[in-house]
Write a structure and sequence with these properties.
There is one protein chain. It is built from 4 helices and 5 strands. It has 123 residues and is an alpha/beta fold. The chain folds into 2 domains: 49 residues; 72 residues, D-Maltodextrin-Binding Protein, domain 2 (3-Layer(aba) Sandwich), CATH 3.40.190. The strands form 2 sheets. It has a 3-stranded parallel sheet. A two-stranded antiparallel sheet has the order 1-2. A hairpin with a 4-residue loop joins strand 1 and strand 2. The longest helix is centred in the N-terminal third of the chain and has 27 residues. The protein is globular, with a radius of gyration of 17 Å.
Length: 123
């Protein structure tokens, strides 16, 4: 059985971009993943094994700069915390923080991030 599906991305020489259908699919996938994670946390909590979780998103430069030392410090200070790390663009990270999908983001400097608070860690 063959099922026609819309193109989810457009590939050009320097990059790959999501189509509108791809962006909708991606957003829905993120929500489903969050629902599955929440269900797992609820089951753990009911079973008496509550685990604290923090979701962190980062732009690429931070993954080789400040992120490793930050994660090590968090791990030493809060050894029972579960960290979920993902990468994204500054715009995506800001949207995901505003929507409550992630807790913390490492982004490039921008002029306006709405009502979100930010702290500069640039040298």
């Amino acid at each position: 059985m063959h099922i026609a599906q819309p193109a989810l991305f457009i590939r050009s020489a320097p990059r790959v971009e999501l189509t509108r259908a791809g962006a909708a699919f991606y957003e829905r996938s993120v929500r489903i993943r969050s629902d599955v994670d929440l269900s797992r946390e609820i089951a753990r909590s009911v079973g008496g094994r509550s685990a604290r979780k923090i979701a962190i998103a980062t732009v690429y430069p931070a993954t080789i700069g400040v992120l490793p030392s930050f994660l090590a410090r968090i791990g030493r200070t809060y050894p029972d915390i579960c960290m979920h790390i993902e990468s994204g663009t500054t715009d995506d990270i800001i949207r995901h923080i505003a929507a409550g999908r992630i807790d913390l983001g490492f982004i490039r400097l921008v002029e306006n991030i709405g009502s979100l608070r930010f702290f500069s860690i640039a040298h």
